[in-house]
Design a protein that fits this description.
2 domains; TIM Barrel; 22% helix; globular; alpha/beta
């Protein structure tokens, strides 16, 4: 439901510096369903706490009341906070904080299940093409748990997701970024700072475990019309590429999408042609194993810019496989990331292109802040503002890449297809 009124109370003037304070910039705020409002607050650093209360009134007249402390913006928190009122039986207030950000997600207690959202889209738009839809994507999708990290890498630098891949799929993610490392003969998902011996990072679950989760999802009746895209790249053990391909083929079996058409362009295909299958794509490291008939499709990064000044594409738009414009901002500053990604979207995004446009709503750790959970806390609350705009405006991205993906954030992205 829409929030039709916001009342802020319990304010002590001493706790705040200037006019950037919640009783001034949230008072009377209306926030539509699946949208967000983000404001700058200036606290008096001499105060030890900065408490306030918020009372939200929804479109059915119900109320939700909770208390908060802006001091939490200095601390890494991920928790439900107490809320009262008639809406509290169906709505929770989930807080994430840190990195000078204090965010409150007012979301349903019932966890959204988007296991069949592509099937529902096909029922409304049976002719939709892959390059004519918007899907959630999981950045470093396999790093939802940690095996071990290198000597100079902390766990919080490495973990990028909270949900196992099976639950990411149920949440609605359909594009997965997998990076594999040969850990003593055992293929594991990994996240490293580079591909040389000095690289820092760590490993997560085994590839077999992740592929088993994908199989389990595809076996769900609700997933009968879903197409799942896997991208294998950044392989930290080049000598293991053959073993990786074999593991994927064995692990997915008949769920892999295959084609005898050696010229097949994946982004131009009707979604219905891929429904109920896993589309596995592999970057140039795997060039010797590309084989459409086996379901080992070529992945290609589209250059930035994607064409010469005269409009000539730099890559062949008819090249077999999957082409994706994927250029992240490589910044730990939200404004820099947002301006970079929205600028690229305006210039090169939109439906019906010769490639898929990936919008990377992610921040990259730097010397001052490398905790990926906190970095996602900084940028994820802003995402519903953008997805709500894309519902009525163009261009839209084809893939929205996020860290620490949730079913509620996926709802916002999936609704861009309506």
């Amino acid at each position: 439901m829409d929030i039709i009124n916001t009342v802020v109370s319990g304010i002590d003037n001493y706790d705040w510096d200037g006019d950037c304070r919640p009783d001034l910039n949230f008072q009377g705020a209306q926030i539509p369903n699946n949208n967000s409002r983000c404001e700058r607050e200036e606290v008096n650093t001499h105060a030890s706490t900065h408490p306030f209360t918020m009372t939200l009134t929804f479109s059915d007249g119900s109320i939700l009341f909770f208390q908060a402390d802006q001091r939490d913006a200095y601390t890494k928190l991920d928790r439900n906070i107490p809320a009262t009122g008639a809406a509290a039986d169906r709505l929770q207030v989930y807080q994430t904080s840190g990195g000078y950000t204090n965010a409150f997600y007012v979301q349903s207690w019932a966890v959204p299940d988007h296991s069949g959202w592509m099937g529902e889209l096909l029922s409304r738009k049976p002719d939709v093409l892959v390059n004519g839809l918007t899907m959630p994507g999981s950045h470093d999708a396999g790093m939802y748990e940690l095996g071990y990290s290198t000597l100079f890498a902390a766990d919080e630098w490495v973990q990028t997701q909270a949900l196992p891949v099976y639950d990411q799929l149920k949440a609605g993610s359909r594009y997965f970024d997998f990076r594999i490392y040969d850990a003593g003969g055992l293929l594991r998902l990994a996240h490293y700072s580079g591909d040389n011996t000095a690289a820092q990072g760590g490993v997560g679950p085994t590839l077999d475990e992740v592929l088993g989760q994908i199989r389990s999802f595809m076996e769900l009746p609700a997933a009968a019309a879903e197409a799942v895209f896997l991208k294998f790249s950044h392989t930290y053990s080049p000598e293991a590429v053959g073993a990786i391909v074999a593991a994927v083929e064995n692990g997915l079996g008949s769920w892999m999408f295959t084609s005898t058409d050696l010229t097949l362009v994946l982004q131009d295909q009707p979604l219905s042609a891929l429904a109920g299958r896993v589309v596995a794509t592999f970057d140039a490291e795997f060039a010797g194993y590309w084989n459409n008939a086996n379901g080992v499709f070529r992945y290609m990064d589209v250059p930035n810019p994607p064409a010469l000044p005269d409009g000539t594409p730099i890559l062949d738009p008819a090249a077999s496989g999957l082409q994706v414009f994927d250029h992240y901002a490589d910044s730990d500053e939200f404004v820099v990331m947002q301006d970079n990604q929205l600028g690229l979207l305006t210039m090169y995004g939109g439906y019906g292109k010769d490639y898929l446009f990936l919008l990377s709503w992610t921040l990259t750790g730097a010397a001052g802040l490398v905790d990926v959970r906190v970095l996602s806390t900084i940028c994820n609350p802003w995402l519903p503002q953008r997805t709500s705009q894309w519902r009525t405006q163009s261009p839209k991205p084809n893939i929205v890449f996020i860290d620490f993906l949730t079913p509620w954030l996926c709802t916002c992205i999936i609704q861009d297809n309506e």
